[in-house]
Fold this sequence. Notes:
Layout: H1 11-22, H2 33-53, H3 57-77, E1 83-87, H4 94-102, E2 107-112, H5 114-126, E3 134-138, H6 150-154, E4 163-167, H7 176-190, E5 196-202, H8 205-208, H9 211-224, H10 237-245, E6 249-254, H11 259-265, E7 274-279
Parallel strand pairs: 1-2, 1-4, 2-3, 4-5
Antiparallel strand pairs: 5-7, 6-7
Helix pairs in contact: 1-2, 3-11
This protein binds S-adenosylmethionine.
S-adenosylmethionine is lined by residues 3, 6, 9-10, 12-13, 16-17, 87-90, 92, 112-113, 116, 139-142, 168-170.
Amino acid sequence: xxxxxxxxxxxxxxxxxxxxxxxxxxxxxxxxxxxxxxxxxxxxxxxxxxxxxxxxxxxxxxxxxxxxxxxxxxxxxxxxxxxxxxxxxxxxxxxxxxxxxxxxxxxxxxxxxxxxxxxxxxxxxxxxxxxxxxxxxxxxxxxxxxxxxxxxxxxxxxxxxxxxxxxxxxxxxxxxxxxxxxxxxxxxxxxxxxxxxxxxxxxxxxxxxxxxxxxxxxxxxxxxxxxxxxxxxxxxxxxxxxxxxxxxxxxxxxxxxxxxxxxxxxxxxxxxxxxxxxxx
Length: 280
Ligand SMILES: C[S@@+](CC[C@H](N)C(=O)[O-])C[C@H]1O[C@@H](n2cnc3c(N)ncnc32)[C@H](O)[C@@H]1O
């Protein structure tokens, strides 16, 4: 089964879920005891990294999260997007915060592998967030067809409404052929809607050679018992690679040019991530 390749990644979602909560971005229901434990380990590591090298992993996480949020809000506010599919949502607060903000103007589908989707559904039920506009469904990003494929999940949405697909903290766990296949599936899916935008965090080889990034990647690799991958050498590669995957235009937006992410992008570490935005 395709999903078996990446289920090992799921525990990291508890840690990021707790991280978003610790930084005041989430609902208490998404802060789990497991998350607190794993976040404690990452927090100690991030503290030591900052002291030794000045590189802030917290700034990197916050820049990426706030950067994606801001670009998604912009697409919704411009009337281009009324439906969102978040792939590998984990325990991220985005579905909760966006449905709070936009109410009936937005339909939000949170998706993840079965165990994490079940956990998220139970926690969001406790938070009182779920409705016909905000659902959690099982989706395997690596599945080409079948009930848990992106194709099948997207078919449940309104084909007349502009749609966004979001991934955060997923693509670097996928090997290059798997990543390309995921982007092709996303582009093909979005092309069926009147407007389609894909948003993700993105990193570059030129910046990823920083010892702090290498060390964090090594820590994550041990934790998930698998390798991490950087898919682009430089930001200039983004349009070419994403066009080859089926998008009409794409760019890697610096977080310092996105107002809500700017304060983090100014900190060393926060400048190592950009927001990938690709339109069909
Ligand atoms: C690092 S977590 C990120 C969670 C969330 N996006 C965030 O930023 O807090 C990675 C997530 O990817 C999910 N995942 C791993 N493999 C997947 C796959 N093949 N399809 C869908 N989700 C997957 C995991 O279950 C986990 O929730």
